[in-house]
Amino acid sequence: MLTNGVKPSTLLRVFVLAVWTVGCSGEPAAGDAGDDAAGDVGPDVVEDTPGDTAADIGEHDGEDGDDGDAGDDAAGPPGLSTALEEAGFAVQAGVLDEPDLESCCEPGGFCSGTNPTSPYGQLRLPPGPGQTAENPGTDAEGRSSAFRLREDEAVIVFGRTPPSCRYYGFTPYLMDRHDDGSGARVPLFASLGDTANNLSTTTAGGAFDERTAIVMAADQHTLGRVREALLAAGHPAEAVNVVVLPASRCVFGLDQNADTFGMMLRVAVPEDPAALDRYFEDPPVEVLRATPAVPEEVTPLPEPVIRDRGTGTAEDLRAAVDDLEAALRAAVGAFSPSATITDVPTAAAFPAVFNGFSCIDRMSFCGGDNRDALYMGTGDGAFRIGPGYLIAFGVNHQATGKASYSNAVVQYVENAMGVVALDSTQMSGTADAYLPSHPDVDLLYAVAFARDCAAVPLTSCVEVPSDGCPLLPADAEANVVFRAYLEPATRTGPDLREIVVDRVLYVE
Question: Are 324 and 404 found together in one domain?
């Protein structure tokens, strides 16, 4: 619960990450991961080439079809399945849905650092024709969010982008890999390139609630044929985009030794939460798996150039944050003279740590990294909330223009589950009571995380639940995670060197 008029998002729903493919367990699994400029900021226009990783999204101008494909008010261009079949593909239907969250709250669950500000969606696909290995975590229809692919196959996502929000992004992942040495499957959950987000996409209209065709592919010939099928079905050429599966980093195939792949959707801070609820309840998106009926020689697509972080302009606000810390300490001392206030060290995880390609090279778990984010927090520092409480404070990175949105999250350490959060749209005015005449107060924030906000002197306070789901059990340890998402100027995550890392105080 937020006090003093700061209301929690109705989308404070945490979706399981690790259960995306194999269910929640005490070990990291190949599964989902946890994670805006103004909503009216449109994407830059980019050329639609095989190297593009953005989702070019556009309206469909053709007539509604009657062959089972989505019509104008549904998900995609009419006749796409037929057009793909006429182009020589076997076509299978997948789905975009939400991961299950219930087992994430159970003892021993592992959730890969879910983000309460950002609901998740996942693609689920059936096995490919002739597949000899079972995909993990299949549903009743045999579909899985960790799927094997031949190098000449394509996955097509077409429909509408999410409604207006601070951020959305479609991210491709390498979910797990066969270890030749041990014979085991190693969970990686590592990104395979840039995320197609609301600033990097091109559309026939705006960034939100627009038609899209996202083609995830590795082969030039397959991509060309899929593109022709989309155009034949009436989809506008400028609204076709490519997410490249880089051949040099992937092991393709339908047998036990092949990699599994996935794609995940994050949406954060919607303008109309009810509209986003409707989007996830009945996604206006269809998913197709296209397999060439007659295999041909493969010509790998070029590996895309990753977007660079940083603009050369940094947040020059460390002194202002020092002033805010002093004022917060004074406020706590005046309210509770006997309280002990501990300065909790925080740091940013250098982007190389959560870098999909690096994780793949090291065969290490990447936790569903997203290049659109900069991750910060208390790291190994963990504390019990109640009777003590935490104060998170610092720079509102959205207000400085270094992020499209940012947040502070209390995380249940044992389960790596985000429990509650304050996002940057809720931070405005939360530092005013402590620095009323400070020239930079509009760029700062301060929030307490407590079991009972009545026992806290801060004007902004988020209550941390000990039951329900998500939750932080009464005797469980918590830490704080900060995220800064999508710098508008670069269309990717901000540069660590240009950010003032958020801070934490622990009050007993």
Answer: yes
At 41, list the tokens.
Answer: 């900021």
User: Which phi and psi angles does 378 have, rounded to 5°?
Assistant: -85, -5
Tokens of 367: 């936790």
- Out of 292, 307, 341, a domain closes at 292
Q: Which domain holds residue 181?
A: 53-99+120-292
DSSP-derived 3-state class of residue 6: coil
Contact 81, 277 (CB under 8 A): no
What's the confidence (pLDDT) of residue 25? 34
Query: Does residue 350 contact residue 338 with C-beta atoms inside 8 Å?
Result: no
d(CA 249, CA 482): 30
Quote the tokens at residue 43: 């994407």
Structure tokens at 224: 């060309």
The number of beta carbons lying within 10 Å of the beta carbon of residue 282 is: 10
Instruction: Measure Cα distances from 353 to 425, 452, 481 in Å.
Output: 28, 36, 15
- pLDDT category at 384 given cuts 50, 70, 90 is very high
**Block residue for tokens 């003093």:** 4
Question: Are the C-beta atoms of 421 and 407 separated by less than 8 Å?
Answer: yes
> Within 13 Å of residue 433, how many CA atoms lie on the same side as its CB?
14
Phi, psi at 239, each rounded to 5°: -110, 20
Looking at the predicted structure, is the pLDDT value of residue 98 above 70? Answer: yes
**Residue 108 covered by a domain:** no
Q: Which of 423, 446, 346, 400 is nearest to 35 (CA)?
A: 423
Residue with structure tokens 């990294």?
A: 369
* Cβ 411 vs Cβ 493: under 8 Å: no
pTM for this predicted structure: 0.85
